[in-house]
Amino acid sequence: MAPDIHLSSAVSARPQGGAHPQGDARKHARAARLRSLLLATQSGPVDAARLAFTALTTHDLELSHHPVIARIGAALQSSQLPEAWRFAQELRAEFPLAFAAATATIAVRPTPRGFFGGLSGRRFDLSA
């Protein structure tokens, strides 16, 4: 009996046309992290913006060396949210996908009225 000889290729299969699905996923993840930083600097407390900044620079090493991101980090470190938001506006041309939803107004839920979380207009005194 003769031994079987098998030949296999080590080339990974990629879709034709130059599209890389890993690049698209990375681009969307970067935009989501940048969007969370933008929303936190626009409306949130400083601690939330600092957490979003840390998540962005930890998971994206390319952006951790970006000069505008560094200025945003310095502004957040000194607790100056308006200055961080002003620096973030410089990223609008470079990352338009991140700014698409970040500039939308944030809806604030109204406080519930009454005892049943808004279902009743009356308040009941249960202390008796």
Protein topology:
Elements: H1 21-43, H2 46-59, H3 61-64, H4 67-77, H5 81-88, H6 96-102
Helix pairs in contact: 1-2, 1-6, 2-4, 4-5
Please explain how this structure is put together.
By secondary structure, the chain is an all-alpha fold. The chain contains 6 helices and no strands. The protein has helices spanning 21-43, 46-59, 61-64, 67-77, 81-88, 96-102. The longest helix has 23 residues, at 21-43. The mean pLDDT is 75.
Weakly predicted, low-confidence segments? none
Rounded to an integer in angstroms, the radius of gyration calculated over CA atoms is 25 Å
By helix and strand content, what is the structural category? mainly alpha
- Give the averaged pLDDT, no decimals: 75
Please state the oligomeric state of the protein chains shown: single chain
Number of helices: 6
Helix content range: 40-55%
* End-to-end gap: 96 Å
Count of β-strands: 0
Overall geometric form: elongated
Strand content: under 5%
Summed up:
The chain has 128 residues and is an all-alpha fold. The protein has six helices and no strands. Helix 1 (21-43) packs antiparallel against helix 2, helix 1 (21-43) crosses helix 6 and helix 4 (67-77) packs antiparallel against helix 5 (81-88).
